[in-house]
Amino acid sequence: MAAGLGSRMRPLTEYTPKPLIPVHGIPMIETVIHGLQKRGVREIYIVTGYLGEQFERLCDKYENVHILKNPDYLTKNNISSIYAAREILGRTDTFICESDLFVADESIFLKELSHSCYYGRMQKGYSDDWVFDLENGRISRIGKGGTDTYNMVGIAYFKQKDAKILNEEIMKAYEKEESSDLFWDDVVNQNLDKLDLTIEPVKEGQLVEIDTVEELEKINESR
To answer: What whole-number distance in Å separates Cα of residue 32 and Cα of residue 195?
Structure first.
């Protein structure tokens, strides 16, 4: 998903979409692409919006990368990016990734996964970020705020069966007027009883979410 404005990283994102900003000399989105390719993912679709034409060069650089345009990125939340992929979601097992991640350890993509899952990092104490509650090893709630639980890190994996269910529920939700404010994860949370979702743990430093110019400067200074 690469449609967002990247407002918190202005002025860097005034003329460059956030996923194309380099970390250690490599555009963030390309670290995600490299990890998916190492996994053997055959087709990668980038959902674009803001300054979307700048992503087209990735289709020339990587033969299995394709562009999907999100026409609603300015008026709707990120549910619109999953909706833009409705023609392909559910065809096969699928990774759904934020594109403004710096993947420092590509091995996170290599494990064979027997269940649909969100990747998460354990957070000791209270977190006001997006988190997951677990019950008997399965995700029982996705939402903001939690204690001693897993933080969302921006990567999810759906087995084909669950990807089909997600696609159906996204399309249903999108037709409703209130969908403008929905995150796609809200739709997952509303349908957890239909999905078989668990957590795939990642460690600190394996991937980094970069939201501000200060965070970018800090990680670029670390090497």
So the answer is: 25
- Determine the residue type at 58: L
Other C-beta atoms lying within 10 Å of the C-beta of residue 59: 14
Residue type, 112: E
Bridge partners, residue 26, by sequence: 23
Domain ranges of the chain: 7-220
Please report where in the chains the tokens 């159906």 appear, as a residue. Answer: 168
Residue 181: Cβ-neighbour burial (10 angstroms; 0-12, 13-18, 19+): exposed
Q: Residue type at 198? A: T
| The two structure tokens encoding residue 105 | 């350890």
* Position 219, amino acid: I
CA distance 173 to 176: 6
Tens-place pLDDT, residues 125-174: 999 899 999 999 999 999 999 999 999 999 999 999 999 999 999 999 99
Spatial neighbors of 47 by CB under 8 A, at least 6 apart, are 1, 2, 3, 68, 69, 70, 81, 82, 84, 85
- Coil, helix or strand for 65? strand
Q: For the full predicted model, state whether its pTM sits above 0.85.
A: yes
- The CATH superfamily label for domain 7-220 reads Spore Coat Polysaccharide Biosynthesis Protein SpsA; Chain A (3.90.550.10)
